[in-house]
Write a structure and sequence with these properties.
CATH class: Mainly Beta
Strand order of the largest sheet: 2-1-8-6-7
Number of domains: 1
Order of helices and strands: HHEEHEEEEEE
Structural class: alpha+beta
Helix content: 40-55%
CATH topology: Ferric Hydroxamate Uptake Protein, Chain A, domain 1
Length: 227
């Protein structure tokens, strides 16, 4: 039978272990409480950040919509401005850059901008051609505006207020002459056809292919060339 001294020692040891265990438990409980408090704080910060993100996202969507409306207003103005005015010259050069910026910004917010894909061919009449395939076009644009956007404004024209159309005199730095002119064409199946109306009145749809040719013409004003 254990002596009283041994039992006392055991009891003292157990009490000491109890104190140690309690201290460790208190330490971990304190850490748990701190961690819980920090977690709650992180959750609140996350919720606040989410609200701010949603607000920014909404503002970004509104800004993109405004950007798109600005481009639409600019194209409408270019369709009706006299081509000799400073506003026209500045706007025609800015259109392509603004449209490309919009196309680059819109997908970053998960937005898929409405756009058509079109093809343009330039035939300079001397054996030199330039092709533009799969160019992004804003729905509602006509051939004249599409050409301005694709070439970043590298189009010269005179404005006819009677017919409300532009008479193109130079494209991509190449001007028409006394016996040559720029003609616009559209692709019908596999055949190129001279556009029955001017570039301002020829709409561009998804998949449209159009061309500009520089060549001479007959006494009736019909082109003596095809793309």
């Amino acid at each position: 039978m254990p002596s009283n001294r041994i039992l006392t020692g055991i009891i003292v040891l157990l009490v000491a272990l109890l104190f140690v265990t309690s201290a460790v438990a208190a330490l971990y409980y304190g850490r748990y409480q701190n961690q819980t408090s920090e977690t709650d704080s992180y959750v609140k910060e996350l919720k606040t950040a989410l609200v701010e993100y949603n607000q920014l996202s909404s503002s970004y969507d509104s800004s993109l919509a405004g950007f798109n409306r600005t481009i639409a207003l600019l194209t409408n103005a270019l369709s009706n401005l006299n081509s000799s005015t400073p506003a026209y010259l500045e706007g025609s050069q800015a259109l392509g850059a603004l449209w490309n910026q919009y196309l680059a910004l819109a997908p970053k917010n998960g937005t898929s901008p409405a756009r058509y894909s079109a093809n343009m061919l330039l035939d300079f009449g001397n054996g030199t051609t330039r092709s533009f395939t799969g160019e992004a076009i804003q729905p509602g644009w006509n051939v004249y505006i599409a050409t301005l956007a694709i070439l970043n404004g590298s189009v010269q024209a005179t404005w006819n207020p009677v017919y409300q159309e532009h008479y193109v005199t130079a494209i991509d730095g190449v001007s028409s002459g006394r016996t040559t002119a720029w003609f616009v064409w559209t692709l019908n199946g596999t055949n190129w056809e001279e556009a029955p109306l001017g570039a301002d009145l020829t709409p561009v749809y998804n998949g449209t292919s159009f061309a500009w040719t520089l060549c001479s013409y007959n006494q009736n004003g019909s082109p003596l060339c095809t793309p």
